[in-house]
Amino acid sequence: MNPRVFEISKTKYCSDSRDFKGSEVGEFTLAGLDSCEVRLVGCVNALFVNKLKGCNVYAGPVTGSILIEEVEGCVLVLASHQNRIHFAKSCDFYLRVRSRPIIEDCNGVRFGPYCSKYEGIEEYLEAAALSEETGSWGNVDDFVVGESFKVPIGVGFAGR
């Protein structure tokens, strides 16, 4: 196994915290989790999220992109340069993202600003070129419908 690739998979009712402060993690995968809480502290290069149900995920900055597929009833607090979300149902996304989030085949998804707090988070956001809140979380592109929607100013949390 590549030492720069980490995974948490096929787990139910878990609470896991991973601290990557000072390490160089390439990819991290969360897959097949049910009713779990996961906290990723520090930076990783890429994050893959697949088949989560009823989970809360709190992640430090991702220097590249995040791909999310088949999540339901989850809360995801994520910071990255790009977010692609496929087949999400009834999920809340709190994002700091450099480009507009992209959704495909999603229902009942809502978006709000990134709200993760822990010691050192500001330095990690700076290192990942994500220190500035751009408001991109509020401008979502729906590739299936072929349109964009904007979260109304002052609402702070809205979706489709």
UniProtKB/TrEMBL annotation:
Organism of provenance: Pistacia atlantica
Protein's recorded name: Uncharacterized protein
